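To illustrate the input format used throughout this study, we show a single complete record. The first block contains the structure-token representation of the backbone; no residue identities are included at this stage. The design step must infer an amino acid for every position from geometry alone.
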């Protein structure tokens, strides 16, 4: 019987993937910064449509999006360094569990912020 052979990812491929992940992270960071500035500029414009409570929700949602994207880039970077399939599966499993917990907390927080924002959007009178 042949010996069990472990699948090994070549070092050159890992380095190439790591470089690409970092370039994507930088580009995404620039895009998110631009979007954040655009949203802030839009939300600071005089408007009766955008109540202050919704600005808080919007800013928090942007923070969550950045955090989730960073987690994805971190995973991609770790996957690029993985030495074998077992490492890849372990990393992916840990990421999925952590992100599902994070998404649940984020949804709960955004729901609370939305509930707080609702009364502030009603006309006073």
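Output of the design step:
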């Amino acid at each position: 019987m042949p010996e069990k052979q472990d699948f090994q990812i070549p070092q050159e491929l890992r380095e190439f993937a790591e470089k690409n992940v970092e370039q994507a992270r930088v580009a995404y960071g620039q895009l998110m910064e631009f979007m954040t500035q655009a949203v802030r500029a839009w939300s600071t414009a005089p408007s009766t449509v955008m109540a202050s409570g919704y600005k808080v929700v919007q800013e928090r949602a942007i923070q969550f999006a950045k955090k989730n994207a960073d987690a994805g880039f971190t995973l991609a970077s770790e996957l690029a360094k993985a030495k074998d399939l077992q490492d890849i599966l372990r990393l992916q499993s840990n990421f999925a569990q952590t992100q599902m917990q994070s998404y649940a907390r984020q949804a709960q927080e955004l729901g609370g912020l939305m509930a707080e924002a609702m009364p502030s959007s009603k006309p006073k009178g």
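Structural context for interpreting the output: The chain has three helices and no strands. Residues 11-118 form one domain.
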